[in-house]
User: Fold this.
Amino acid sequence: MAVLTHPIIRFIARRLLYSLVVLLGVLIVVFALVHLVPGDPVRIALGTRYTPEAYNALRSASGLDRPIVEQFFGYIGSALTGDLGVSFRNGDPVTVTLLQRLPATVSLGVAGILIALVIALPAGIWSALREGRVSDAIVRITSQFGVSIPDFWLGILLIALFATTLGWLPTSGYRPLFGDPAGWLRHIVLPSLTVGLVAAAIMTRYVRSAVLEVASMGYVRTARSKGLPPRVVTFRHTVRNALIPVLTITGIQLATILGGVIVVEVVFAWPGLGRLVYNAVAARDYPVIQGAVLLIATLFLIINLVVDVLYAVVDPRIRLA
Amino acid sequence: MTTFTGESTRVASWRLLLRNPVTVVSAVLLGVVVFVAVAANWIAPFGVNDVDVPNALQPPSGQHWFGTDELGRDVLSRVLVAIQASIWVAVVSVAFAVVVGVTVGIVAGYRGGWVDTVFMRVVDVMFAFPVLLLALAIVAVLGPGTTTTILAIGTVYTPIFARVARASTLSVRVEPYVQMSRAMGTGDLYILGRHIVPNIAGPLIVQTSLSLAFAILSEAALSFLGLGIQPPQPSLGRMIFDSQGFVTMAWWMAVFPGAAIFVIVLAFNLVGDGLRDVLDPKQRTMIEARGKR
Assistant:
C-alpha cells in the first residue's frame, strides 16, 4: 500500500484522471461535429451520388437514424473499443484507414523533431552563453525569422531549390520505411526539413531562455565562486538543469507537429493523417474527420501526459508543488 | 521617496519601448502594413481580377513590379488586396478571441469555485486540439468562406486568452486594493471594470500582438488549403498554392505573397516581443508552447 501513497504514483494517478476527463470532453466535441453541420450531413456527403437507396443505406450504416442519446453512447462505446465507424465516401472502416496513415505522419513528426533538436540545442545553448554578443543576436534574429515563416511556403521554396532546380531530391511522394529504406530517406528529407526548421526556431528560443534562467540561479553562482572550471559550471550545472524545461517543449512540439503537419503533408503529397483530414474535409467525409480529429487529439493528450510524468520523475519539485 | 503614478509608469513604459530600435522599426513596418490594408483598393495599380493572357507569367518590370501570374493578372495588386483581406480576418478573429476568452478568463478567475472548474475544463478540452486541426474541423462543419475562417481562427485562439486573463485575474484579485474595495461593498462589475481589467491589460496586449501573427499564419494556411477566403477575392495563401505549378518558370508568383506573409508575421512578433519586455517581462509566450500550427 505504501507504493500507492508515493508522491510519484499519486501525481501520475491525478494526471491520468485529469487526462481522462479531458478525453471525455474531446469525445463529446468530436461526436457533436457531425450534428453541428447545418442540414443533413449524409445528404451533403453524398452530393451528386445521391439516391434514396444510397442515402438510407449510409444513414443506417452510420447510425444517424437512431435517437441522439443512443447515438452518443453508441459512439463513445464504439470509440473506446476502437470502432470509429465507416467512411461516407468508400465504406472503409475508419480505424483501419487511420492506422494505415499513422506511420507516415509519425515518421515525419519524429524526423522533424530530431532535426529541430539537432539545430535548437546547440544554437540555443550557444546563444545563451554568448548573451548580448553578435552571435547571440544572429541566433535570435534567425529564430525570429523561422517562427514567422509560413511552413508551406518554406516547403515550396525547398522543393523549388533542391528538387526542381538542383534535382537532388524528389519533389513529393512517400516510400515505406521497411519496404524501401533508401527511398524513404530521400522522400522524407524535404518535408521533415520543412517541419524541423520551423520547430527549431521555436525551440531555440526556449533553450536559450531556459539556459539563461538557470545561469542566474544561486547554485550556479556558488559553483562559479568556489572556483569550478567554467566548462564544468556550464555543462554540469547550467545546461543539464536547463534541459528539464526543454524536455517539456520538445514533447509539446512533437504533439504540435503531429497535429499540424496537414499543410506540409499536402505540399509534399505525404500520405499521412493530415492529408487524410484535408481530403476528408473536401469530401465532407464526416466519420473520417471525426476519427482523425479524435486520434490526433488523443495522441496530443498522451504525449502531454508522458511529458508531464517524465518531468515529475526528473524534477521532484514539480510533483511536490 | 519616489512615487509612481499611473501616468509616470505609462511614460516610462513608452520610453522603454521606444528605446528598442527593433520594436520601433517593426512598429513602423506594421504602420505601413495597416496603411496598405486600408488603402489597398486605391493604391493597387491594376484590378485584382484583370485578366491579360498575352502578358501572362511576365517577370517583375517597371509596369508590373511583382510580375504577372498565369492569367496575366498583376501580382502586386493581388498581394496588396490580399494583405487587406488577411489583416481583416486576423483582426476580427483575434478581437472575437479577446472578447470571449477574456470574459471567460476573468469570470473564472474572479468567481473561482465551480464556475472556474467548469470554464477551465472546457478550455482544457479546447487545448487538446491542435490549432489548425480544430480550425479545419470547424470549416468542415460550417463550409469554407471568410466568415467561417474568422469564426474558426477566433475559436481556436480563445482558450489562450482565457488562460492568460484567468492567471492575471487570480494574482490581481488578492491585491489589497481589490480586497479593500470588496470589503467596502463595491459591486463586482465595478471591481472588474475599475481594478481587474486595467491591471491585467499588459499580458493581454502582448498576447494580442502575438496572436495576430499566428492568426495571419492560420488564415494563410486555411486559404492555401482552399478552405479560407474564397476566389475571386485574392488571398496570400491561395496565391502561393496556385504558384506551385509555376515555381521554376515564375518564381515571383510564390516569392512575393510568401514574403508578404513573412514580413507581416515578423512585424507582429517583434512588436509583441518588444511589448512583452516592457509590459510583461515575466510571462513566457504560452501560445508558442501550444504551437502556432
